[in-house]
TrEMBL record:
Originating species: Sphingopyxis lindanitolerans
InterPro entries in the cross-refs: Beta-lactam/transpept-like, Beta-lactam_cat, Beta-lactam_class-A
Statement: the UniProt record of this protein carries the keyword Signal: yes
Keywords: Hydrolase, Signal
Location of the region described as Disordered in the Swiss-Prot/TrEMBL record: 49-71
Signal peptide: 1-27
Enzyme Commission code(s) on record: 3.5.2.6
Enzyme class: hydrolase
Catalytic activity: a beta-lactam + H2O = a substituted beta-amino acid
Protein name stated in the entry: beta-lactamase
GO MF term list: beta-lactamase activity
Length: 379
């Protein structure tokens, strides 16, 4: 893997001069948000109390901090800005040093469609309920044909074959995160108390600009311009009904969603939430270790952010991908935590709100962002 590259040259040969269109902001280098009790201030330095075993060791005394603790390596912000400017469509980037005091953002405060990234907040809400004694990881959840959803739901094959499936909360979290299974996720959502329970968790933890939608069925049907019917969960009934709509109806529904995504979140808020998760300030130590471990087993998006990191780095993450319309994808995302060989950790977020770029080009941007973090690490 090449470690030295220019963001402009990477995309110049791929996409050309037209890539400079549609971008609206300049680079932002901001202090990392404070801990939960002061996160609403949006600025300030933090000292990181980190413990075992999936977390890095606590930072050394102030007099011996490594240069990258208080500020990013010279040139990293410019590299991220160059990559961002060169990519078409509405794109947001955030990089935050978890064991440090800084963050870099591009359109960091804007809301982007999360799609399956929001499964992370469902899992956190469930684990928060576990921490409070309201739910057990071994609790059984019944899943029947009336619970089937739409799009990616491998678990649905078992339901159709067996009629009713019973799974533990633990297994549902594993399936929802590692396989991005919509049925497993909505089953967890139902178990924890529905969308309002997740919104209450987000408010309780002061996560900032992170919204949570109405669940997979209502979110996807509204984005397509449909009113949900349970028959849409069978086969390709949803896709058939969507294709039968007038294009004007579909475009209007998509435009409404993109203008104010009901599941929208800002890259900066997500990076801050990942940082707080890794630091152990969102969940109990046991739930923190468990969720971070689950995220290391994510199957989706192997050629997104993860592929840009060199050997020796570790990465745990959650992807999200929205519906397509006329070659445009409403949400193409990857968010995660990268750990360098020396234990230093970075939250990395890349979100594409709207893009008509090819999938290889999207993945190339993500790889370039994570690759830049690795290249500049320790400089």
């Amino acid at each position: 893997m090449r470690r030295k590259f220019s963001g402009r040259s990477l995309f110049g040969t791929m996409i050309g001069a037209a890539l400079l269109a549609g971008c609206v902001s300049s680079a932002a280098l901001v202090p990392a948000p404070r801990q939960a009790q002061t996160a609403h201030n949006g600025s300030g330095a933090v000292t990181v109390p980190i413990g075992a075993p999936v977390r890095s060791s606590a930072p050394p005394p102030r007099g011996t901090l490594d240069p990258g603790f208080r500020r990013p390596a010279p040139g990293l912000g410019d590299r991220i800005a160059s990559l961002w400017r060169a990519f078409p469509g509405k794109t947001g980037i955030a990089v935050q040093r978890i064991d440090g005091e800084w963050a870099i953002t591009q359109r960091g405060a804007d809301l982007f469609p999360q799609q399956s990234v929001s499964k992370l907040w469902v899992a956190m809400s469930v684990l928060d309920a576990v921490d409070d004694g309201r739910i057990s990881l071994d609790q059984k959840v019944r899943i029947g044909p009336e619970d089937l959803v739409v799009f990616h739901q491998p678990l649905a094959a078992r339901v159709r074959s067996e009629g009713v499936v019973t799974m533990s909360v633990r297994d549902l979290i594993e399936t929802a995160i590692t396989h991005s299974d919509n049925l497993a996720n909505d089953s967890l959502l139902r178990t924890v108390g529905g969308p309002n329970a997740v919104r209450a968790f987000i408010t309780k933890k002061d996560l900032g600009s992170i919204r949570f939608g109405p669940g997979e069925r209502l979110l996807q049907s509204a984005t397509a311009g449909l009113t949900w019917q349970q028959s849409y969960s069978a086969g390709r009934n949803f896709q058939t009904a969507r294709a039968a709509l007038p294009m004007a109806t579909r475009q209007a529904a998509m435009n409404k969603y993109l203008a104010d995504p009901i599941d929208g979140a800002s890259p900066a808020a997500i990076a801050s939430a990942l940082t707080r998760l890794a630091r152990g300030t969102l969940l109990s130590p046991a739930s923190t270790d468990y969720l971070l471990g689950v995220m290391t087993r994510t199957h989706s998006g192997p050629k997104r952010l993860k592929a840009g990191l060199p050997p020796g780095w570790q990465f745990l993450h959650k992807t999200g991908t929205g519906q397509d319309l006329n070659g445009m994808t409403a949400g193409y995302n990857d968010i995660g935590i990268a750990t360098a060989p020396d234990g230093t950790r970075y939250a990395i977020v890349v979100m594409m709100g709207t893009t008509t770029s090819s999938i290889p080009a999207r993945m190339a941007l993500m790889q370039a962002v994570s690759g830049a973090v690795a290249e500049f690490h320790g400089q």
